[in-house]
Amino acid sequence: MKNGVKMIDIAKKLNVSVVTVSNALGGKDGVSEELRAKIRATADSMGYKPSNSKRDKKQPVNTGAGKSIGIITAECFAAGIGTFYWELTANISNKLSALDVYTVYESISVQNEKDCVLPKILTENRIDALIVIGQLGQPYLNVLSKVEIPLVFVDFYDNHYDIDSVVSDNFFGGYVLTDYLVRKGHKKIGFFGHVTVTSSINDRFLGYVKCLMENELEYNPEWVIKDRDRYGTIYSEFQFPEQMPTAFVCNCDETAFRVITNLKFKGCKVPEDISVVGYDNFTVSNICIPTITTMEVDLEKMASASVEIIMKKLADSTYSEGRRIIGGRLIEKNSVLDISTKK
Q1: What is the dihedral of CA 249, 255, 261, 266, to 10 degrees?
Q2: What number of CA atoms fall less than 13 Å from residue 171's CA on the CB side?
Q3: For residue 227, what are the CA distances in angstroms to 132, 204, 230, 243, 249?
Q4: For residues 156 and 162, what is the distance between their CA atoms, to the nearest angstrom?
Q5: How far apart are CA 255 and CA 198, in angstroms?
Q6: Into which CATH architecture does domain 170-297 fall?
Q7: What does the pLDDT average to over 172-182?
Q8: How many CB atoms lie within 10 A of CB 273?
Q9: Nearest CA to 52 among 97, 15, 89?
Q10: Does domain 7-168+299-326 have CATH number 3.40.50.2300?
Q11: pLDDT tens, residue by residue, 224-258
Q12: In this predicted model, which residue has the larger pLDDT, 203 or 231?
């Protein structure tokens, strides 16, 4: 009789993510020995059998049960439970597991990214396809793009490569956030983000610039402030310009949270002295005081699109999706002051 127990069943029983179960059963890091033992014992008691454990890797790739799909992220994105990338990874993994697809996760360290060291799940031929969540540096992508298995980029794209991608509507999102501030009376608006690190940040920045141009507002280079290093690690402290704008568009909620924290340390009140908006509508936007007005990313649709595309590519090696753009919506909270009625 065919074994019907899947990793998602084990995850639900233990109230952990499918990524955690996959790492535990696959002998990967990131799981305590106590939890690993518990997961393995539960898997044994439930009769779980990895469907690809003795698969001949030379067999032709087909879709469906028994296939193995890898998920990788840069170390800077592999943060704790509740972050945007953690939830996106878990969502994709859960959807793949529901299709009886084995999911293997690996984080790319900063040093391995610098040295262009490919993940073990690739070099050891453990996967049939790969999903890359969050942008890696171009030298690394140069190497990664040469792998001969189906490949999908999620939350970024790179036109140097003919690789399918799933992204939020970043350009329009950046425009909508800036336009919202303009409608609230703000004429001096800055931007927080390292605009050359990821395509998402760059497109959000370009949406911001478009809105300034349309409204004939000042573009001040001193109001465009880097929020992270070139490997994506967000700074904890920022240097603000001497002459401040009345509002900042931040490329993500985490940056917005840190901007607000730094502003408070300087004695500035948000939104009374300066308004701040973010992007993603994730956990940090709700726990911040004040809560952060933000552009919501439809994480569910992004995950569904990612799974749909990678499965189509497994079924047909010639299939090409191009770039799938997922729309979002503005979520008003408490971090913006309406100054449109001020004289």
Answers
A1: -60
A2: 6
A3: 23, 14, 10, 18, 12
A4: 13
A5: 14
A6: 3-Layer(aba) Sandwich (3.40)
A7: 98
A8: 14
A9: 97
A10: yes
A11: 999 999 888 899 999 999 999 999 999 999 999 99
A12: 203
**Phi/psi at 276 (5° precision):** -140, 135
Segment 111-157, tens digit of pLDDT: 999 999 999 999 888 899 999 999 999 999 999 999 989 999 999 99
| Integer Cα distance of 21 and 148 in angstroms | 27
What was the pLDDT predicted at 22? Answer: 76
> DSSP 3-state assignment of 151?
strand
* CA separation for the pair 219, 213 (Å, rounded): 8
Is the four-CA dihedral 207, 212, 213, 219 of positive or negative sign? Answer: negative
- 82: tokens are 């509740």
Same fold, 7-168+299-326 and 170-297: yes
Write out the two tokens for 219: 């573009």
Q: Please, which residues bridge with residue 325 across strands?
A: 167
What would the pLDDT profile of 260-280 be if each residue is shown by its tens digit?
999 999 999 999 999 999 999
Give CA–CA dist 94/36, Å, rounded: 19
C-beta separation of 192 from 174 below 8 A: no
Residue ranges of the domains in the chain? 7-168+299-326, 170-297
Residue with tokens 């310009």: 241
For the stretch 283-309, pLDDT in tens is: 899 999 999 999 999 999 999 999 999
Among 289, 231, 290, 241, which residue's Cα sits nearest to residue 266? 241
Contact, 136 vs 113, CB < 8 A?
yes
The DSSP output letter for 79 is: -
